[in-house]
Specification:
The chain is mainly alpha-helical. Helices cover 41% and strands 0% of the residues.
Length: 58
């Protein structure tokens, strides 16, 4: 019975550690800077780029 309690305690400790690790990685903050006066409208493109990997299926 004592071994069973030790296994349960170990599993619970691993679960708490992994959940803390997962929650800590979700709290990342990304810093960036950009010029809001820059005009990027000429760079927007919604067309598909040519891919040579699709030619082998035709």
């Amino acid at each position: 019975m004592r071994v069973f309690k030790a296994k349960v305690r170990f599993v619970m400790m691993v679960a708490v550690f992994l959940s803390g690790l997962i929650m800590g990685s979700c709290a990342t903050k990304i810093n960036y800077s950009y010029d809001p006066g820059m005009n990027f409208t000429g760079l927007k493109s919604y067309t598909w780029d040519y891919s040579s990997s699709l030619d082998k299926w035709q």
